[in-house]
Request: fold
Amino acid sequence: MATDMLRMVVMYKRTGIYALLLAALACIPAAIQLGFDGFTVPVSMPFGVTLEEALKEPNPVVWVDARPEDMFKTGHIPGALNLNRTNWGKSLSQLFGCYAPGKEVIVYCSAGCAESEEIAKQIRNLGLEPVLVLVGGFDAWQKANPGS
Amino acid sequence: VKAPVQSSIAVILALFFIYAGIIKASDRSAFYHDIRSYHLVSDELAWYLAHYLPWLEISTGFGLIWKGTRNSASILIVALLIIFTGAISSAWGRGLNIECGCFGKASSVLSYPWILVRDIALLLAALYLAVFGYSKIKVDND
Reply:
């Protein structure tokens, strides 16, 4: 009886040690990949998406232009909605009309502006996912599409 | 009869987890976005989990194949599946329209009932290995 108990304890102990070893083993390649990707979240990572990545997206994308209306009128990404703090209440219904699960919402403004981050945050707070920000803004689009 | 059944379940479960792990480890940024979309952990923790979880799935997958570590691996998988099922149920309860993140970008939009049924089936398989694996060792030692 005592031998059986001892055997059980040894067996459980061995199982626990192996489980810890398996869990620890996974740390090695994870740490190597973190070494390449960076141990802290890159600034652009939470919401950033490049134009190339956005264009490769297989599902249709909902483009949101967070710039003021006059800038939007002079040029924007085809099919984009103009949604900013000024017209938030008015244009939000348009966004819900275009959005469907599986579609990425990509917000942009001019290069170097922070408005797209803010609008993306507000859209995310409504429960829509994923909401990303175009790295380089509308300037990145214009560079890739001269004359647009 | 028991041993071949256990081995078959272990191999199927192992291939499932190894495949899922490789897909996620190869696209950490997509997996990071998927973890974030559950709104359960901070961005920093999501970043670390996006790097660690795929490799944990791979290591436990290989652990299932080798008989000596099968019990330990199946216990880890049970723990993982309980966490995954809890996270998915929580997202469903909050009405989130998100991607599962189960197989990286390939998983596409989450169909909650289907994913939950699949996870519970996997959980039962892993539980079977965890419980009956112990019995087998005990018999061998006797």
